[in-house]
Specification:
The structure holds 3 protein chains of 3 kinds. By secondary structure, chain B is of the alpha/beta class. Chain B is built from 8 helices and 7 strands; from the N terminus they run H-E-E-H-E-H-H-H-H-E-H-E-H-E-E. The longest helix of chain B has 17 residues. Chain C has 2 domains: about 170 residues, no CATH class; about 70 residues. The interface between A and B is small, with 5 and 4 residues.
Chain lengths: ~200, ~210, ~280
């Protein structure tokens, strides 16, 4: 589905209309499911709900991202998904923190793109997909949790009381859980992507 | 039958036990439908949704047909038997390894019906089954419905008077969630429009 | 949040709303006084009144905000980092004569800190919600276009917003189909199992929908021109310029507060000392 257009320059030139629509729709699925499942979970202050919300968030987000990357296979797909997700937060709930959220979405996106570029292109095996997906957790959680101490200063005492660990350790725990489930999600996303490509 | 928004699909979902009614109950074989576990309920009643694509959960024809047996953890021999039986019944022999989205709309509808029949329910609900079908496929579907009518109870939601007249013993007219009329006349297409609003009458292209 | 919410078309340009909202939030981030933050929240409430949103919408969101306030207030009161107790002012709430729980109370400084924090968050959330509820997403997207956001990206934002309720609807349809194939989708375990079973079908259905939408977009000349015009051409009016001046004042005030030109950060503490 290609036609000669004046839009043949710039970042978007590599994407067909179908690719852009798939990315938009995947972000819609991500945001829609996030709204249903996370609003309640994230507000419950308990170790179990924290763990469940990190796990489910990683599984949801990174499965969709790697799925899209496997189906579309064009450099910039991952970055575009994260950017669109962040931009959506700004459009639907405009405030300074959603702008900061946009930045915290873009950085992992760029790093994952860099990882795939360095390792020779978008994943052609499950292991590479899984490792690529991990990159997000390493960056995202420290950034978000440190930011939280600025917007919600009591959160540090809150965490230390509930989890019984210093805040720094809590950040590391988030990264570890995020990396493990990000890795699993990356593999799942890649495999579903292959299956879907075959089906359509 | 009834106008859009009269509650036909909602009624179908309530009958199948998917939605809970605000008042009253659906009794099948002496028990409320809600008291059956889902695995038991599908042996009583099955629903074919309007768009065949909305009924699809997998990517291969055989996986789609064997979805319920897979959930029920039937053995391989039994699954193979059910698959072959239902492929033959739906005129889909040789389709088992085909991709669901690589077959035609009418074939997908037959796969969707097969995926219901494999659980051997006594009651089948069809929601607008002839919508979007060309004349030939509609006639094929009418023949299939007439055959199923001999062994199952069919509940059909439709605006298609030709289809209803061919298979229905009784037609209920729904308006704003209430049954307003009941007709036990088989040949609904020949009935004059006195009882049905003109908008519900469809022009039909008859093949000579 | 988007389904069924009636967007009152405001005469203010969405870009201006964004700027005013962010300047206001910048200001309240610099203020640490409970009383002034409380007054800021009242100011936001006045803005809500001026917006003349439907009562149902207002009550729905304020119930959520009240819940948020209660959660933040209680958690920050209970879990605050505190200085040594002997330096704080203790307020006894339950008289000592009552057995078991008698003598329970809280520290005034912690109470004040919780109020400060809670009202800051409430002002932030209610301001952002107000902007969101009074701006149609398509106008916000037009604002993005004016801010030189690429055309493709703005269309993708619209598609995503439009698709969110469709994704939820598709999920429910698939859950109904799974139900009629014998899968329990109710209850916690049912929901978790249904995610596993319905995720791939949801993706496949979404991709098929993408194909149809892509054909439709191409048929309507998507990306046929470099800089297509928009149906709504945003123009700044006199009210917008007035609000921009107001934003500049808010930013200036933030700087004044930060530089501690006037001592306003201790008003509540002084008041509390008088009362307690």
């Amino acid at each position: 589905m290609t036609m000669e257009t004046e839009q043949e320059k710039g970042f978007f030139k590599r994407f067909a209309t179908f690719d852009l629509v798939v990315i938009a729709i995947f972000v819609g699925v991500w945001y829609g499911v996030q709204q249903i499942w996370f609003i309640g979970l994230a507000a419950i202050p308990a170790p179990l709900s924290w763990v469940v919300s990190v796990i489910v968030y990683e599984l949801l987000a990174m499965t969709l991202v790697l799925l899209a990357a496997t189906i579309i296979r064009k450099r910039g797909t991952v970055f575009l998904i994260f950017f669109l997700h962040g931009l959506l937060e700004v459009v639907l709930f405009p405030n300074i923190f959603s702008v900061i959220g946009l930045v915290s979405d873009i950085i992992p996106g760029a790093l994952i793109e860099a990882f795939f570029y360095i390792t020779g292109g978008y994943p052609n095996n499950s292991l590479k997909a899984g490792i690529g997906a991990c990159v997000r957790a390493i960056v995202f959680y420290p950034f978000q949790l440190l930011l939280l101490t600025v917007t919600y200063p009591e959160y540090v005492a809150f965490v230390e009381f509930f989890f019984g660990v210093p805040y720094g350790v809590f950040i590391v725990l988030n990264v570890i859980v995020g990396v493990i489930f990000g890795f699993i999600a990356g593999i799942i996303g890649y495999r579903i992507g292959l299956k879907v490509k075959e089906a359509i | 039958m009834g106008e859009n928004g009269s509650g036909k699909t909602t009624l179908a979902l309530i009958l199948a036990g998917v939605l809970k009614p605000k008042q009253g109950d659906i009794i099948i074989d002496g028990k409320p439908i809600g008291s059956y576990k889902r695995k038991q309920a599908i042996r009583k009643i099955g629903v074919l949704f309007q768009n065949p694509d909305d009924n699809i959960l997998t990517t291969k024809v055989s996986n789609e047909i064997l979805y319920a047996p897979w959930i029920q953890k039937l053995d391989e021999g039994e699954k193979k038997r059910l698959l072959n039986e239902n492929l033959a019944l739906m005129n889909l022999k040789g389709y088992d390894n085909k991709g669901i989205f690589k077959i035609s709309y009418g074939e997908r509808e037959r796969v969707a019906i097969a995926s219901l029949l494999v659980s051997q329910p006594n009651i089948l609900i069809f929601d607008e089954p002839t919508t979007g079908q060309d004349y030939k496929h509609k006639q094929d579907f009418i023949k299939l419905a007439q055959k199923l009518n001999e062994t199952h109870t069919l509940i059909t939601i439709s605006h298609d008077l030709e289809f209803l007249s061919a298979i229905s013993h009784r037609v209920l007219l729904l308006e704003k969630g209430k049954i307003t009329e009941t007709h036990i006349n088989k040949n609904m297409a020949q009935n004059n429009s006195r009882q049905f609003p003109k908008e519900n009458m469809q022009p039909s292209l008859m093949e000579n | 949040m988007q389904n069924g919410i009636h967007f009152i078309s405001s005469s203010l340009d969405p870009r201006v709303k964004l700027i005013v909202s962010m300047s206001f939030l910048l200001l309240i981030s610099t203020i640490h006084d409970a009383l002034i933050l409380f007054l800021s929240f009242i100011a936001v409430l006045c803005a809500w009144l001026l917006a003349k949103l439907p009562i149902k919408t207002v009550s729905y969101f304020f119930k959520s905000i009240a819940l948020l306030f209660a959660f933040m207030f209680i958690s920050s009161t209970v879990f605050s980092r505190i200085a040594p107790k002997e330096r704080l002012t203790y307020i006894e709430i339950i008289p000592a004569v009552i057995p078991l729980i008698g003598g329970s109370g809280i520290y005034a400084e912690i109470l004040l800190a919780s109020i400060t924090f809670s009202f800051r968050t409430l002002s932030l959330v209610s301001m952002a919600l107000l902007v969101s509820l009074t701006t149609e997403p398509s106008r916000m997207v037009s604002a993005l276009r004016k801010l030189r956001c690429p055309y493709e990206l703005t269309i993708m934002v619209i598609i995503t917003i439009r698709f969110i309720p469709l994704a939820i609807e598709q999920w429910k349809k698939l859950a109904a189909v799974a139900n009629v194939r014998g899968i329990e989708t109710s209850g916690i375990i049912g929901r978790i199992k249904s995610i596993k079973r319905l995720f791939t079908p949801l993706i496949i259905h979404s991709i098929r929908r993408s194909m149809q939408l892509a054909y439709s977009l191409d048929a309507r000349g998507f990306r046929a021109t470099k800089n297509p015009t928009t149906m709504e051409n945003l123009q700044l009016g006199s009210r917008d310029y007035l609000m921009l001046v107001f934003s500049v004042l808010l930013i200036a005030l933030s700087i004044v507060v930060l530089l501690e030109v006037f001592s306003i950060q201790n008003i509540s503490v002084e008041l509390m000392k008088l009362v307690v």
